[in-house]
């Protein structure tokens, strides 16, 4: 028994694994049910691989064309959204950190507004805004990324800010400036390498948010992965379940990578 | 201001413009349209429309679903956090738990509806198991999964993970010196938790509880995927108002509903930030 456990501040091994086991099981069972569902054959309770192999059959590209288009749309949206985070949000955060420390609280406040103004509220006001956006840029799917850039603000902000807090940006940039570097060089060769992990984490989490987004796409009548999944689930629930499971798995791996990135940083700083 | 001073601020304009167009304007439009008719004249009719029985009922349903799932999620999530105390944040266990929690809490949406249809739908794995092994038909009283009650389990499925994410930092902020002081002064495990840990954690716990409430209250995707007919909760009322814009006299009802939601969200999130500020006193 460890000292902390004796003092009562930490659970004993038995308690810990009992809680984690019970909750873990309760959370695993529905997910197992989803996977089992993808192997169902009709309603008789028999199992088959057909739903999975069907995705690789010759006419799959035709049968699931809508779904594949939607996946393409979501990936495009993810890329453009990450672009917005990198080109609009990130430089602003660096600038505020370096030049306008008094605006830091304001920026933070703005970036967490999307939590208080949820997507279902925002979409009511986005509808008229998008009628103008469509006139300016046409109705292509990528324009939806403008809205997604707002949705990912709280997540991307947190990821980049934790990275900003970890390095002394002011000293670094002043050192570089005094050695004769111009601002572009400072940003590109001094600041970005130091912020790499935060930027990567922000990019990954933005991809995760965009792949899971349903509300805005659905109510603005756009097609993305989630709206297509709901559509497909009405005609072919098995395929919808397969793609839902794969999407959840993909996002889980993305987040695992973020966690692993953060971990390697901490390991290095303690060694 | 000098030219250079103005130029300094120029760097902030792209972000300022972006946030203005895609956050400030939509938010303003969303809450303001409720005050206007379709022809652009000022009216109280939409706001008064919030008092209609079906809309009050939707607010009430949203409220109790959010409250019930927030309380269950907060208690279960806090237990998981407690179980994780003493594990290192860098450990593989924590990395995996954090990732799973994050997936389920923030990105599930429509997919969580599929998960629960596969588990406890009419032909769900658990439904069939209960029917075959215990001889009980869980749908004897009707298709409750596709009604408001059906939201409870899927919502708890994303509320518990959200609690794990938000409450873990507070629990980890408990200092071992406090436990040592408690032991030195002759306190027991019981006095440590009741006199020290719980009072310190209380603001954070209730703050997280509010965040969970706001999360469920504003959640749309899971409900939209499960409930295709009707508008039993507020987000679904907004869907109905947006989709059926042709229905006479309800043109700007979505705006009034959005305003109602924002009012609730602002109050809840204000409470959250107040409690959060109290928490941070102990995390220095």
| Biggest sheet: strand arrangement of chain A | 1-2
Count of individual domains of chain A: 2
Largest sheet of chain A: 2 strands, antiparallel
Look at the structure and give the CATH class of the largest domain in chain A. Answer: Mainly Alpha
The top-level CATH class of the largest domain in chain B is Mainly Alpha
Extract low-pLDDT stretches of chain B.
none
Reported for the largest beta sheet of chain B, the result is: none
Please provide a written account of the structure:
The complex is a heterodimer of chains A (271) and B (284). With 271 residues, chain A is mainly alpha-helical. Chain A folds into two domains: 3-55, no CATH class; 63-270, MetI-like fold, CATH 1.10.3720. Chain A has helices at residues 3-7, 13-37, 50-53, 60-63, 65-99, 104-116, 119-137, 144-151, 153-166, 169-178, 183-212, 215-219, 225-235, 237-270; strands at residues 40-41, 46-47. A two-stranded antiparallel ribbon of chain A has the order 1-2. In chain A, helix 5 (65-99) packs antiparallel against helix 13 (225-235). Chain B has two domains: 1-35; 45-283, MetI-like (MetI-like fold, Orthogonal Bundle). Chain B has helices at 3-10, 13-32, 45-49, 53-84, 92-106, 110-120, 125-134, 152-172, 176-184, 189-217, 221-226, 234-243, 253-280. In chain B, 44% of the residues are buried. Chains A and B meet through helix 1, helix 2, helix 5, helix 6 and helix 7 of A and helix 2, helix 4, helix 5, helix 6 and helix 7 of B.
């Amino acid at each position: 028994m460890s000292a902390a456990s004796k003092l009562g501040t930490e659970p004993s091994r038995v308690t810990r694994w009992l809680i984690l086991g019970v909750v873990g099981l309760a959370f695993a069972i529905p997910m197992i049910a989803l996977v089992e569902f993808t192997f169902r054959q009709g309603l008789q309770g028999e199992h088959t691989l057909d739903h999975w192999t069907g995705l690789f059959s010759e006419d799959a590209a035709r049968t699931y064309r809508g779904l594949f288009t939607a996946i393409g749309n979501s990936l495009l949206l993810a890329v453009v959204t990450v672009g917005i985070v990198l080109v609009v949000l990130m430089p602003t955060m660096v600038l505020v950190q370096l030049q306008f420390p008094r605006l830091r609280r304001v920026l933070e406040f703005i970036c967490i507004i999307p939590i208080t103004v949820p997507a279902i509220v925002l979409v009511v006001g986005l509808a008229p805004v998008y009628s103008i956006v469509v006139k300016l840029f046409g109705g292509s799917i990528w324009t939806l990324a403008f809205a997604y850039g707002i949705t990912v603000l709280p997540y991307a902000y947190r990821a980049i800010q934790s990275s900003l807090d970890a390095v002394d940006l002011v000293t670094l940039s002043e050192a570089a400036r005094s050695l004769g570097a111009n601002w572009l060089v400072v940003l590109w060769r001094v600041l970005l390498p130091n912020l790499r992990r935060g930027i990567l984490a922000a990019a990954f989490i933005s991809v995760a948010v965009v792949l899971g987004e349903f509300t805005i796409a659905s109510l603005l009548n756009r097609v993305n992965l989630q709206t297509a999944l709901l559509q497909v689930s009405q005609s072919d629930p098995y395929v919808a379940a397969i793609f839902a499971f794969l999407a959840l798995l993909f996002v889980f791996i993305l987040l695992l990578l973020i966690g692993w990135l953060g971990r390697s940083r901490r390991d290095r700083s303690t060694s | 201001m000098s030219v250079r001073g103005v130029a300094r601020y120029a760097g902030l304009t792209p972000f300022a413009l972006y946030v203005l167009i895609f956050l400030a304007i939509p938010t303003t439009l969303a809450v303001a349209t409720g005050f206007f008719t379709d022809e652009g004249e000022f009216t109280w009719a939409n706001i008064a429309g919030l008092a209609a029985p079906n809309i009050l009922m939707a607010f009430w349903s949203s409220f109790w679903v959010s409250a019930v799932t927030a309380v269950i999620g907060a208690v279960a999530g806090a237990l998981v956090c407690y179980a994780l105390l003493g594990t290192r944040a860098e450990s593989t266990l924590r990395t995996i738990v954090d990732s799973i929690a994050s997936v389920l809490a923030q990105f599930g949406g429509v997919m969580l509806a599929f998960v629960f249809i596969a588990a406890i739908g009419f032909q769900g794995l658990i439904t069939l198991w209960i029917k075959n092994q215990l001889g009980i038909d869980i749908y004897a009283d009707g298709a409750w999964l596709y009604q408001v009650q059906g939201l409870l389990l899927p919502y708890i499925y994303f509320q518990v993970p959200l609690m794990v994410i938000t409450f873990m930092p507070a629990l980890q902020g408990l200092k071992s010196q406090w436990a040592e002081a408690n032991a030195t002064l002759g306190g027991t495990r019981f006095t440590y938790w009741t006199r020290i840990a719980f009072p310190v954690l209380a603001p954070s716990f209730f703050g997280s509880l509010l965040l969970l409430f706001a999360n469920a209250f504003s959640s749309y995707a899971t409900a939209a995927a499960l409930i295709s007919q009707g508008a039993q909760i507020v987000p679904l009322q907004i869907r109905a108002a947006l989709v059926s814009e042709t229905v006479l006299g309800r043109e700007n009802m979505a705006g009034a509903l959005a305003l109602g939601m924002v009012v609730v969200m602002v109050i809840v999130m204000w409470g959250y930030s107040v409690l959060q500020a109290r928490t941070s006193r102990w995390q220095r």
